[in-house]
Amino acid sequence: MTTEYEVRYAIGQREAKGYDTQALRREFLVENCMQNDKIYWVYSHYERFMVGGAVPVTQSLKLETIDALKSAEFLARRELGIINVGGEGTVTVGEQSFTLAKEEALYIGQTTESVTFNSTDKSNPARFYLNSAPAHHAFPHKKIGKTDANVLHMGSQATSNERDINQLLINTVVQTCQLQMGLTRLAQGSVWNTMPAHQHDRRNEVYFYFDIASPQAVCHFMGEPTETRHLWVTNESAVLSPPWSIHCGVGTGNYAFIWGMAGENLDYDDMDKYQPNQLR
């Protein structure tokens, strides 16, 4: 089989307080997004958000429905966001083909058209990171190149969190039903992301960490602001962040991460922020 998936059910903050390291990793960490010649999904019950990856190496990969969707077509009632973190690749939607270089994105609206993934060079395959959310309207498919993104320069070297936030799939760049995605890359010498930390009461968020050089790692912080927990993550791992959880992290070296969100609104700044001295 070229498509595999697992289901993650929603966990409340009271339950998570009692979890040990193994349980936290089992429920919130996704370590196998990127598998050669496979499409892999985690179907999350947080906003019915799906996170996954497609790595076409020796063959083309077709987007197939999964039993959890109870739908004949994957995108019949969904939208899909794609960001390539590998070599050049092509995504074909019906009769349209989109070529994506590293860190370029594609939005695919609600559709029953076929979707396939290919790599230009199998020795340097594309590594398509995927997010999907329920959709109520068929917005047009759209490629978002690096120069199309809305870029926010945030933080400073003095606080070790200087970074560029590339807003790729947000409503000022592309029309979506609820899906939003972007890519944040930290400047040389900066290691803290998303500081001050925040939570979104009306939507979930997923972080996908990449370009982490071995043996370096990132410590991702989650949990309620006064009940934080942490997960050590390595390259190409994702963390599910419930609406009740903060999300921020610090690395032992430079890295980048992709953030994806879905929920009740498309207001990027709809968040509750917590200064470092407020966290416990």
From TrEMBL:
Q: Which reaction equation describes what this protein catalyses?
A: 5-dehydro-4-deoxy-D-glucuronate = 3-deoxy-D-glycero-2,5-hexodiulosonate
What InterPro entries does the record tag this protein with? KduI, KduI/IolB_isomerase, KduI_N, RmlC-like_jellyroll, RmlC_Cupin_sf
Q: Which residues bind Zn(2+)?
A: 198, 200, 205, 247
Keywords in alphabetical order, please.
Isomerase, Metal-binding, Zinc
User: What SUPFAM superfamilies does the record point to?
Assistant: RmlC-like cupins
Zinc in keyword set: yes
Keyword Metal-binding belongs to the record: yes
- Specify the domain of life of the species encoding this protein: Bacteria
Q: Which GO terms describe its molecular function?
A: 4-deoxy-L-threo-5-hexosulose-uronate ketol-isomerase activity; zinc ion binding
GO process annotations (BP): D-galacturonate catabolic process; D-glucuronate catabolic process; pectin catabolic process
Cofactor note (record) = Binds 1 zinc ion per subunit.
Q: Which cofactor does it need?
A: Zn(2+)
Question: Hey, which pathway is this one from?
Answer: Glycan metabolism; pectin degradation; 2-dehydro-3-deoxy-D-gluconate from pectin: step 4/5
Enzyme Commission number(s) from the entry: 5.3.1.17
Q: What family classification does the UniProt entry report for this protein?
A: Belongs to the KduI family.
Its biological purpose is as follows:
Catalyzes the isomerization of 5-dehydro-4-deoxy-D-glucuronate to 3-deoxy-D-glycero-2,5-hexodiulosonate.
Name the HAMAP family on file. Answer: KduI
Q: Which NCBIfam families match?
A: PRK00924.1
This chain's protein is named: 4-deoxy-L-threo-5-hexosulose-uronate ketol-isomerase
- Please give the organism: Paraglaciecola hydrolytica
